[in-house]
Each structure stands twice: as C-alpha cells, then as structure tokens.
Design a protein that fits this description.
five-stranded parallel beta sheet; about 650 residues; seven-stranded mixed beta sheet; extended; alpha/beta
Length: about 650
C-alpha cells in the first residue's frame, strides 16, 4: 500500500520539523514543509499531497483559513487545522473552510493519528460518492439521449404507419379491410402513447422535466380533454361527464399541456378499468370549499389558487396493496382477475411527478368492486390578475402605394409575403438575396424592407449594415427594415433588434402579427402604447397543420392552395439540391439550402418536415455529416407531406 503523503504548513520551523518527525514515526510521508501562503500553494500544486496539516497563524498576508479555502476550491485536498487558537471566532471562521479536522496544540500523537485517519476516510468516502454521483449523472444523460434518439427513430416509423393508414382509410374498403386498418391505426396510436410515457419518465429521472406556464381557459381545456375521451367511453357504452362549479376561476396561468396530460391519463385509466356505469371529472377550488357563495363575492381574488381535480369511476376498484404502489414506476395492477391492460405502468408515476411540479399532491380512494376516485391538487396563478382578456384586434390600415422590398430566397416565402402585402395596398419588389436588395435600393425609391436573415451572397444583416452606413445612393440610413425569419429561438428577436432591425416577425408567419408589426414600424407614435400580443403556440410536430395555417392566413384558402402548389412543385428539386450539397460536403450551401427549405415548410404548416430540415441545418452549420438513413427518412417525410398537401388541396378547393 503506498505511503500517505502529507504537507505540513506552520510559521514556526522548529514546530514544523517536530510535527514532521511525529508524522514519519506514525508511518506517514511528509512531502514538504511550508510557512506561508505562496510556498504552501506551490507545494500542493507540485506534490499533490493526500492531506494538508495547516496552522492558522502564518507569515505573510494570508492566514491558514484563507489558504484552506483556495486549496479546497482548486485542488479538493483535505485540510486538517493544527493550531494553538481555540477561541470561538477563530473556530467559526475555520469551519467556513470545511476542514476535515481541528486539533489544538500542544497535540497528542495518538489524537493526531486518529484525526488524520478519520480525515482520510471521510475524504475518500466523499470522493467515492462524488464519483458515483457523476457516473450516475453521465448514465442518466446517456439514457436520456438514448430515449430521445429512440423516440426520434420510432416516431419517424410511426409517422409513416399512421399517415399511410389514414390515407388507406379514406379509400374504398370492404368491412374486413376497414376493421383491419382501424386496428392498425389504434395500435400505432397506443404505441405512440407508450413512447411518450417512456420519454417523459426519462426526462423526470434526468431532472429535465419542467413546466411552461401560460394563460389558459380551464373550461375550454377540460372540454377538449373530455371530448377526446368520449369515443373510447362510447365504445364500452360508458357515460363520461364533467362539472366545473361557478366559483372555480376560468382563466388560469399554469402549464395547460401538463394539466391535460394528467387528466387524460386518469380518464383513460378509468375507461380502461370500467365495464359499465359512469366516469366523472369534478373540479373544486379549495379556497371556496364549504363557503357560502354570497360571501365569496366580497372576498378579494387571491393571486394563487389551489384546485382539486377528482376523477371517479364505477370500475373494478383497487385493493389496499395496489393503492400502496400504484404511483410507483413500472407497477401495474394485476390484470388476471380484472381486465386485460395495455401500457407501461408509467402513467401514474409521471402524473405524480407532474403534480408535484405544480406544488400539489395525488392520491386514490378505492374499494374492490365499487370503483375508484383519483384526486389531485395543483396550484395555479389567477389568470385575470396577470392580464386582461384581449379584445379581438382590428387589422391595421396602411397608406396605399407604399413600396416594399421583399427579400427571401425561397419561392413560397416570396409568394406569401407578396400576397399579404398586396392585400393591404403595398407595391412589392421581390429580391432573392442581400446583393439584389442593394441594387434595387440604388435604382428605386423604397419605403420599407422586409427581409429574411439567412440569404446567399449577402445576408439580411449584412445588407442592413450597408444601408445603415449611408453608402447606398438615394437610400436613407433610417430606412425601416423588418426581419421576417425562421430564426425564432429565445433571444433571436433581441439580437436582431440590437443589431439595427426596426421590427421582427418569426416564421411561420401569422398574418395578424405580421400586419401589426408593419403598423408598429411604419406608425410608431400611434401604436407605442399598445401591448405586444402573444401569438397562439403552434404544434411543431404535425405533418401538416391545416387548421393553424388557416388561422395564420385569415382563412384565405385560395392563397393557401397557391402556396401548397408552389411547395409541391419545388420539393423534389430542393431535396435533390440538398443531397448534392451534402454529398460534396458543401456544408455552408447545405445550411443555407436547408434553412430556406425549412422556412418554406413552416410557412405552409409542414412542421414535421420543417423540424427535420432544421436538424440538417444545425448539423451542416457545425459541419457534421448527415447519415444516409437520415436522408432517407427526410425523403420519406417529404413524400408523406406532399401526399397530405395534395389531399388537403382537394378539401380546400
């Protein structure tokens, strides 16, 4: 066994040598002796001792406590104080350095020996625990990464199964074929539910699960959740109801997605384990339970509300033993005497974690044969206290005849902006890159520039810098410029405004938001006092978000069909160009091409394809190769998207 190496730090050389002799007698190796901060820190750096025996009173400006702080922070070497100071103030200061021992002079050799051995054991155990924790974190991260990659791969396959099955169900099928295809679709959707549970659990275990608070309408949320469960309930001839009393606040601030997830899981379980009778969802405000309604009218509205949700069923019920483990991961009730079950046994464990994130509790009351009631509480912020319900916003009017330069390097983006601007009386000049924009400005009088950021030859930011420098003939330095871009991560808007842009609109474009930003930039005095409106959150996982696109483009089906047609016409060419750039390792061109392609996809609501293309963009930006499998999946996703577009064009025409 190697000898333990100890550094002795003491301002008195005779005392230090005495300590050194004692330590060597005890079988330790003294690697160095120091009397001040600088030689002590140098000795730790050079010799990497197993332990430092430190006096508090030392020569120079730094005492032993200050040096111990540095050694702890920089080298994680255990320090034991050996000092003549025994007053309370010194002892309290010494504790702040987290020493592994404190011995008073004059010392006893046996006590010194014990203190050193205890310090070494304690430090060794802490190091072992730290290493184990670090290893566990790495394993957790690796597991989370694995689950995320697995989710991506399975979702791609499921996307094809669900998409093609949906298409098959719209063709002429006989009764048997219809039943077979419906079973395939149900199975695929069940597999997707299982996948979501596994992914959620991996996030929880990696402590990456968090809430995204926003304002929502509780009644609308509950109505939507219950509506999705009604078909399953009707298949088993079950009745499903819900009740929200008048004094439960309607407008709340919390995470509506996670609330929906919890309620959906509880209702789904209730349907699964109930063969006849009723399933009900009841909601109560804990602040109003047991109070008279007329008295509530006089109370001030609290900022936070704790709501109680209860899901009751008339199903098989649970034994006391089952109630003890039902919220543990991977645990399921025994199905032999009850009903065949499907799933992972993760749903209620995930519900418990989500409820705890909402400062709530979840529990169950049940008896075998009489049904079950699952209760959970959750804390929300009162919606009305945060912001008023906005009135429907009027579309701004603009002076007619203003000339706008549109700068976008994809046809769909150009067409969309052209149509939106011409509707409001603007005259459009279309360009494809920053260099063309500067040529246009030198020859035409332009009142406004609407530009993408990522452009070939000269980017939107570089073109803006030329304009702001005042070097473009007949063009004022303060020409209004709005960035309309697929760069939509947190901080992008602030970055572009700080760089000199006057306005910013993220793709996919919402017509109302776009017009409002135009009005704000062109008529700042009139709109300065109006609050910024928050756009509805877009579901970025859909194959084709027709409903969202209709909402964004004000139900202009003619425009949407024209955009669909342009997109379908250029998909094959864009895919070919992207594959060519990647094969030649032309990463800059591949990044520009994929970002432009993604912007087109997002503009028409092809969100799954847009996300896949942004993954290519990110990889190309970092000069990382794209696998053949990934390109094949991209090609399949493009084919599915095109098929879905054509199907919806027939509906919208």
């Amino acid at each position: 066994m190697p000898s333990i190496s100890i550094l002795v730090v003491d301002d008195e050389r005779i005392v230090a040598l005495d300590i050194k002799g004692t330590l060597e007698t005890l079988g330790y190796c003294v690697c160095a002796v120091a009397n001040a901060a600088e030689p002590a820190l140098e000795a730790v750096k050079v010799h990497s001792p197993d332990l430092v025996l430190m006096d508090i009173n030392l020569r120079g400006e730094m005492d032993g406590i200050a040096i111990a702080h540095i050694i702890n922070a920089k080298y994680s070497t255990p320090v034991v104080f050996l000092t003549a100071y025994s007053d309370r103030d010194t002892f309290d200061r010494a504790k702040s350095a987290n020493p592994y021992g404190f011995i008073l002079k004059p010392f006893d050799a046996r006590k010194l020996h014990s203190a050193i051995e205890i310090a070494l054991i304690k430090h060794s155990e802490e190091a072992r625990l730290t290493k184990a924790r670090h290893k566990a974190e790495l394993e957790n991260n690796a597991k989370s990464s694995f689950f995320a990659n697995m989710s991506h791969e399975i979702r791609n396959s499921l996307n094809g199964i669900v998409g093609m099955t949906d298409l098959a169900l719209e063709t002429k099928l006989d009764a048997d074929q219809q039943e077979y295809m419906t079973t395939v679709l149900d199975s695929a959707e069940n597999l997707l539910d299982i996948l979501n549970d596994i992914l959620d659990l991996s996030r929880i275990e990696a402590q990456k699960m968090s809430l995204t608070p926003k304002r929502f309408d509780l009644e609308k949320l509950i109505n939507k959740v219950v509506r999705t469960q009604i078909p399953k309930a009707h298949k088993k001839k079950l009745t499903i109801t819900y009740d929200i009393p008048a004094f439960v606040p309607r407008m709340l601030k919390g995470d509506p997605t996670r609330v929906s997830q919890i309620i959906t899981n509880l209702l789904s379980n209730a349907i699964k384990f109930t063969e006849q009778g009723t399933i009900s969802l009841e909601i109560a405000d804990l602040a109003t339970l047991g109070a008279y309604a007329e008295h509530q009218l006089l109370l001030p509205t609290p900022k936070y509300r704790m709501l109680l949700f209860s899901v009751r069923d008339t199903g098989v019920g649970l034994t006391e033993e089952e109630q003890n483990y039902i919220f543990e991961p991977y645990k399921q009730v025994h199905a032999e005497e009850k009903t065949p079950i499907r799933g992972t046994g993760l749903g209620l464990a995930i519900c418990r974690e989500l409820v705890e994130l909402m400062n709530g509790t979840i529990w169950v009351r049940s008896k075998p044969g009489t049904g079950s009631t699952f209760h959970f509480t959750a804390q929300f912020e009162h919606g009305e206290l945060v912001e008023e319900i906005p009135e429907p916003e009027a579309i701004p009017e603009f002076p007619s005849g203003l000339h706008v330069a549109v700068v976008d390097n994809n046809i769909v983006g150009q067409k969309l902006l052209h149509e939106l601007l011409e509707k409001k009386g603007f005259k459009c000049h279309i360009t494809s890159n920053g260099a063309e924009l500067l040529e246009l400005l030198a020859s035409e009088t332009i009142d406004l520039v609407v530009t993408e950021i990522k452009l070939p030859f000269l980017t939107g930011l570089e073109a803006m810098q030329h304009i702001r420098s005042g070097t473009i003939p007949n063009t004022p330095k303060n020409l209004p410029i709005i960035a309309v871009t697929a760069f939509a991560l947190k901080g992008d808007k602030e970055r572009f405004i700080e760089a000199g842009m006057d306005g910013y609109v993220a793709k996919p474009i919402h017509a109302t938001e776009f017009y409002r930003e135009l009005a704000r930039v062109l008529q700042p005095a009139e709109l300065a006092a109006q609050p910024e409106q928050q756009a509805e959150e877009t579901d970025m996982t859909q194959l084709l978000d027709v409903e969202g696109t209709l909402m964004r483009l004000e139900n202009d089906t003619d425009l949407i069909c024209r955009l669909y047609l342009l997109f379908v016409d250029e998909v094959a060419e864009r895919l070919y160009g992207l594959k060519l750039f990647l094969q030649e390792n032309a990463y800059d061109k591949a990044a520009l091409h994929s970002q432009s392609f993604a912007a087109s996809a997002f503009n028409i609501g092809a969100n799954s394809l847009g996300n896949a293309l942004m993954q290519v963009y990110t990889a190309a930006t970092h000069k990382q190769p794209i696998s053949a499998d990934h390109l094949a999946q991209l090609e399949q996703l493009s084919m599915l998207t095109t098929t879905e577009i054509k199907r919806n064009m027939e509906k919208l025409s």
